[in-house]
Amino acid sequence: MRIVDLRSDTVTLPSPAMRKAMAEAELGDDVFGEDPTVNRLQERSAERMGTEAALFVPSGTMANLVSVLTHCRRGEEVILGDQAHMFRYEAGSMSAVGSIHPHTIPNQADGTLNPADIRSAIRPSNVHFPRTRLILLENTHNRCGGAVLSVEYTASVVALAREHGLRMHLDGARIFNAAVSLGVDVKELTRNIDSVCFCLSKGLAAPVGSLICASKDFIAEARRNRKVVGGGMRQAGILAAAGLVAMEEMVDRLADDHANARKLAEGLANISSLAVESQPATNMVYMRLSTDLLSPSQLVDRMRERGVFFLTVGENRFRLVTHYGISEGDIDFVLTQFSECLVK
Ligand code: TLP
Questions:
Q1: Position 344 pLDDT exceeds 70
Q2: What is the arithmetic mean of pLDDT over 65-92?
Q3: Domain assignment present for 54
């Protein structure tokens, strides 16, 4: 049976070139800093992001947690969007592990935080209040439709942070999708940000891993915090090898995923019982069911029987993600299945 899995770009499988690189990777003990392949990946990542150094960690969740632990002490505060992945989907890690206080403000539909909201969230010095330490942005913004934050917007929030003596962290799990969508070098989107993390295991299709990119001093401290949360890996070069291939070979092709997402959104918008939220800027399509002839869970189940997988991410809200494993032909197949399921 034909399966088209649109649940996430995390379901991507490594390319043949990645498997070959993994099999042949030069290895060492990375906790001693002696894995040459990990070291190469870290150097290459820092170069790409325009930072002094980088650190390989097992997941995007750990990349965000280790970054926030490195910026903030107990009781300090992070300003972030109420739709931020780190707030909604990372098991409350900053408070669970770090005793760090999340201060949420509303995300706008385009994934931005309103500068006026950021300003009013910054705490004055007062013994009653937590100390504000960090502002966190997410680019692309997952729950805001895979939206892209622009170079100008990002720079304006960096300037605001500087004005108030605050630090900036960017959850750039899909920062390469943003750069490809805007047609800019990724460094434009990370300029002057204190810490940026990105994932190898989403659209870039490597099996495991994320990078934290920042100054040398920050990375030295982050290495300690990675150890605290058990993220020090040994012969991790076997994973880093796939990551190096991902960075070389998988970035430009993200444009194909974006084109497939647009095609999917256009096709779904033509089906009267579906309401697509907006034209996708990257690889995510969000939609709702606009009929009560069947329930949201029935739609998911019936489409699953037809070989089309996607996620429910709200009461009547679905997410469909294009990626390396999805071809243009798969999009045609998916559209046919939706039409048949909803028309019959
Ligand atoms: N997002 C996943 C899961 O939440 C399901 C997905 O399928 O989109 N930041 C952002 C913006 C993310 O979207 C994710 C993963 C993470 C961080 C965490 O990365 P991992 O899964 O590697 O811990």
A1: no
A2: 98
A3: yes
